[in-house]
Amino acid sequence: MAMAMRRAAALGARHILAASVSASSRVASRRHMGSVDAGAAMEKIRAAGLLRTRGLIGGKWVDAYDGKTIEVQNPATGEVLANVACMGNRETADAITSANTTFYTWSKLTASERSKALRKWHDLLMSHKEELALLMTLEQGKPMKEALGEVNYGASFIEFFAEEAKRVYGDIIPPTLADRRLLVLKQPIGVVGAITPWNFPLAMITRKVGPALACGCTVVVKPSEFTPLTALAAADLALQAGIPAGALNVVMGNAPEIGDELMQSTQVRKITFTGSTAVGKKLMAGSANTVKKVSLELGGNAPCIVFDDADIDVAVKGSLAAKFRNSGQTCVCANRILVQEGIYEKFASAFVKAVQSLQVGNGLEESTSQGPLINEAAVQKGREVCR
Ligand code: ADP
């Protein structure tokens, strides 16, 4: 590229990173101060029957077989929100069996019947928007406004696939020999293992479960151990919507054990995963032995480029959104900002100013535009980058 670009790391990004990390540290250092609203929020979720702490296997809420639990913490305060079942290979094996058994009935329903159940699930997600958003803010940290946006976004996948359920068409292909007929029939593949990350506790699940259920597959979901509560609440609403026991199972806890069980099972026919490249590679390799289909959404690498002729206000607003959505914890968050020479100084000072005006805090507070990072390890990682 002939034009001179400067990597914002030289000036702006250092300030920006420093601002964002110290902001996150500020939230981390407010741990144990508690949040005035958290108790009321939990009460609201509990009253709606959406505070689930056990896994879901074959339509039943079950504890870990050895009774183990893991803590789910509020990253804004460090408070323990709940202790959830810490499951492993035995519970996963049972969840797979239940999904496999249900596959034979769920896949035999008409597309219209599956569509109706999914539509109802969508409607229930939307009518519990506030409780789901509160739960998400409590366990993941994102500001309520972003959490409410995620419920809309997450539910939209169920709505979309409820509609698409009726449009899984086959095809007729012109044959190369006159006495042959070539038909494409689309059929559900079987049990799907869905492993999801913590940054979008609802949407990553609905985006995987929606299409699987729509076409007649059954699912074993393993949400992140940092954010299982939203997943369990969504699964509760799926049951209420009439999605049959065993069609959607949720296990969480010991990730490698659960992953290995899903990998080695001959009943699991597909793995869908969003997360790190390192884990994705393991899952891909582990799926080879049983020749599973694999869909992976890994890592992220997202440069943001600002050219000389950019409108500064638009560029700052856009870059801010790209860099700081979910406190910089999405796979498409800008990880470097390249600015053309002519606009660099102006952009850098406007951007730094904009970053300094971001309001860091507990996502339950209305003024907060930046919630905490997910955990202490993420804060440390940010500090390393700043050094
Ligand atoms: P991130 O860095 O975004 O947290 P991870 O890949 O570590 O991404 O986590 C994404 C999901 O993968 C989480 O649900 C996590 O528990 C799960 N996971 C982590 N390690 C394994 C593993 N060995 N097998 C299966 N799932 C795993």
If helices are DSSP runs of H or I spanning 4 or more residues, what is the number of helices?
Answer: 13
Largest sheet: 5 strands, parallel
Q: Which hetero compounds are present in the coordinates?
A: adenosine-5'-diphosphate
The residue ranges in which pLDDT falls below 50 over 5 or more consecutive positions are 7-36
- What's the level 1 CATH class of the largest domain? Alpha Beta
**CATH arch. level architecture of the largest domain:** 3-Layer(aba) Sandwich
How would you describe this protein?
This protein has 2 domains: 38-168 and 186-297, Aldehyde Dehydrogenase, Chain A, domain 1 (3-Layer(aba) Sandwich), CATH 3.40.605; 303-369, no CATH class. The longest helix has 21 residues, at 144-164. The radius of gyration is 23 Å and the shape is globular. Residues 7-36 have low confidence and may be disordered. It has helices at residues 12-29, 38-47, 89-106, 111-127, 129-140, 144-164, 203-214, 228-240, 255-264, 277-288, 312-324, 344-356, 376-386; strands at residues 5-7, 55-57, 60-62, 69-73, 80-85, 171-173, 182-184, 191-195, 218-222, 248-250, 268-275, 293-298, 303-306, 336-340. Helix 11 (312-324) crosses helix 12 (344-356). It has 13 helices and 14 strands. A 5-stranded parallel sheet has the order 10-9-8-11-12, with helices on both faces. A 3-stranded mixed sheet has the order 1-14-13, covered by helices on one side. The chain starts with a strand and ends with a helix. With 387 residues, it is of the alpha/beta class. A hairpin with an 8-residue loop joins strand 6 (171-173) and strand 7 (182-184). Bound molecules: adenosine-5'-diphosphate. The active site is at 297. This is Succinate-semialdehyde dehydrogenase, mitochondrial. GO terms for molecular function: succinate-semialdehyde dehydrogenase (NAD+) activity. Its EC number is 1.2.1.24. Residues 61-384 form the Aldehyde dehydrogenase domain.
